From TrEMBL:
Family annotation (InterPro entries): MFS, MFS_dom, MFS_Efflux_Transporters, MFS_trans_sf
Subcellular location: Cell membrane
Membrane topology: Multi-pass membrane protein
Keyword Transmembrane attached: yes
Record-given protein name: MFS transporter
CDD domains: MFS_NepI_like
Molecular function via GO: transmembrane transporter activity
Amino acid sequence: MTQTVGENARPLNPLPIAIMLAGVGFIILVTEILPAGLLPQISLGLGVSPSLAGQGIVTFAIGCIVAAIPLTRAAASWDRRSLLLGVLVISAVSNLGTALAPDIVTHLITRFAAGLAAGGMWAMFPGYVRGFTPPERLGSTLSVAFLGVTLAFALGVPMGTLLGETVGWRLVFVIITALTVMMGIIALFLAPRVPGVARGTDARIPVEQTLGAAVRTPAVQLVLLAVVLIVVGQSLGYTYLAPILEFGGVALSTGLVFGLFGIASVLGTIGSGRFADRHLTGTLVSALSAGAVGLAGIGLSAWPGLLAEPVGSALLTISVMLWGYSFGGYSMLFQVVVAHAGGAAADAAQSVMVTVWNISIALGGFVGGVLLAGIGPLFLLPIAAILMAVSLPPVLRVLAGIRAKAPHSTASSAV
């Protein structure tokens, strides 16, 4: 049933486990982003304003930020399978609590608890995949495991919103709870045991594997800088895309644009995963370049009166697909990059990146709101494109360091 993975033994085929983790990732991310589509029903059901009900999204994010670093530190030596099962238990209980919450206070508490589970999940996710995957297959296996994330954006929220309108938001969370329990049962039989960090005789984590070691590593610092630039720009564009398109009077519906983004992000995850193991530099640089070009193209197509309607619609379609492909690609590829950059402290570096990523999402949303109210929607996408383009120098420097450290026989894997 359960396989144990040590330094000298790995499952012969990591694909089934990666598919299982894709299902887990899908459910965890749907749990996070679904309330945005159910906000009117939640506010009505709890008898509060939409703005107050929306604080459930905020408390989830806070839980995710709070959990990532402390939980990774506390559970560094735990078997990864046990940690995965624990996360699923907490997530299931939290979602059931959300479904049954009688008031806004209980709702907020359950969303915070669900955020704790999500923060722990995203912090241990890439390290767990590294534990059962041969190094030469890490990129392709991660692309499968992270496919659930992009599918959640493409399919999970629209399906959940539709269900919420037909059966009610509480039943939607009951369904998510049932799916989480189902994934827990599958993980119980399929997930391999991957040992955590071995503590020393003084019960301490080796210095070279600590959070301090991770954040002091120059390559990790450059990765975090790039993440801030990229994710703030992503949040600027994605959060306020609807008012931007509405202001520009584009012919394509907002729903269609988001749908194209979701489809392209799935393609980006799959496509980037195929090439990441052999051509990491070219794959990541291509993804970020596509994102910068796509954001700039959407900005041009949404500029009132700048382009004729057929040209504007064609440019918008192509640009959204480029942006979506970029998002699906770099979201997975940075897991590979931070693992290389962190070295012995890869798990700690990953937990820091999860925290910085979530803070950057919140920062982008805040800054975007201020800019939207101040200078209007037209400049948000150009600013996002510039931020993504500016991220390329630190990314290239990190990738150059990865190539320099790679054995000569495998150096092509990072080219």
